[in-house]
């Protein structure tokens, strides 16, 4: 690609801090110019192909941090880049890149100027640190590209190559390895693409080399510092919330029967979003109703009531809607932060005003706006953890591409006094189930175990659309096709939204299922969602179906089954 062709520059024997910043800035600009190419390499053609964007936002944050206090000392400059990339890391690709920078800086720490052998060793250490940061490293990804590039850089330094020669050899071997990634991962071969993260790394390194030569990489396009967000479909006019009060409490007693409690509530009061779980000694109740007093009166006959929490969701919704989308904060709060520090707080990640409202009603203290195509950064999650005003914070990523980001938030220096626990929820329905399993009075470790178990029991279906032509799982996919995913696995392609949704549920359903929840997105009318639920009730009368407005962008339906 452009940027890889060059003439021979004067021999470079060392790298100081100023030269590192200049080369890094060139890498940032070149990645910004080409990030859409990297984004297009996503295996599944769902609207979340943001690898290039996430990497670009990460390196941009790193550059900004390094530029705050430029220094000729290469070790200090590399340290600043590592800190900035950690704080700004978004998505799995961004977090892995931040770990590459961490390893790179580790080898250069304390050096005023880096020799070619120092840079080669730093590139090799970068890959080593990144491998260790990933719980289950997979070959055929950015990790492999970085490892082989680092190995080639070390050998080039041993062969007496100068600084440019070392970097060029890392790029050359990285490109060779990138071309082989489809042979390492069948999903890449079927889709006809190379690994997106590896491609992003090569593009950045090409720009870095251009900077070392003094060549000017094209500036990043305007607006590139913001996440790429496809315009959401217009949301239909909303009616007022039917059941206004989110009512939640715990019953303690002897020989309690959750099913009996649930039946009594259904007989006594109208409501929805009901969940009654527990055992013979403790039962947790959650319900949306207009008569919370009747619910409490009904349940007090079973035992003593504790941790009663009743919220007016219409007030919360009206307050949320009063702010324009442009003025809406990245971190949403249901109420002012408490003055006193609490023992445990909960931070969740989600997109969609309905989903955010539900998460808050179930006990999330802070909701970080993010998800598909707009992954939050490590700093976003760190700031949310601080805003929770708690000694320990449980984070629900609710997206597979945010889990690693959440785990790395604990490394932010300002959070040394807060212990962060990550419950690895990959979908919003899993996050909701985790919150329902949580007991405010239970020890943190016990809650984490219960929440993690709840996550495993949820089946999640997603109905969205294809953003480009592709092939995956033996399916031929055309742009704008309706596609279904079951627990992240692409299952069906079609043109009719309802038929795809019916097909999805038929694959999700088993004879032990009791409850199914349908969250409809920003572009779906409520009557269409209710019609879908009605059709499913006719086909599966043994399952209780619940419909809620999620408002999530890009995904027509999120369906969960328990």
Structure summary:
This protein is of the alpha+beta class and 562 residues long. Helix content is 46%, strand content 18%.
Can you offer a commentary on this structure?
- By secondary structure, the chain is of the alpha+beta class.
- The chain has 4 domains: 17-213, DhaL domain (Serine Threonine Protein Phosphatase 5, Tetratricopeptide repeat, Alpha Horseshoe), CATH 1.25.40; 241-322, ACT domain (Alpha-Beta Plaits, 2-Layer Sandwich); 336-457, Phosphotransferase system, mannose-type IIA component (Rossmann fold); 460-561, Hypothetical Protein Tm841, Chain: A,domain 3 (2-Layer Sandwich), CATH 3.30.1180.
- The protein is 46% helix and 18% strand.
- The chain is built from 19 helices and 17 strands.
- It has helices spanning 17-39, 51-68, 74-88, 91-108, 116-133, 142-158, 163-184, 186-191, 196-213, 258-268, 292-299, 313-322, 353-361, 378-387, 403-408, 428-437, 444-457, 497-508, 526-539, and strands at 245-252, 272-278, 282-289, 304-312, 331-332, 342-350, 366-369, 390-396, 419-422, 459-465, 470-472, 475-477, 482-486, 489-494, 515-520, 544-549, 557-561.
- A 6-stranded mixed sheet has the order 14-13-10-17-15-16. A 5-stranded mixed sheet has the order 5-7-6-8-9, sandwiched between helices. A 4-stranded antiparallel sheet has the order 2-3-1-4.
- Strand 13 (482-486) and strand 14 form a beta hairpin.
- Helix 3 runs antiparallel to helix 4, helix 5 runs parallel beside helix 7 (163-184) and helix 6 (142-158) runs parallel beside helix 9 (196-213).
- It is elongated.
- The protein starts with 16 loop residues before the first helix and ends with a strand.
- The model is unreliable at 1-5, 219-239, 319-329 and 332-337 (pLDDT under 50).
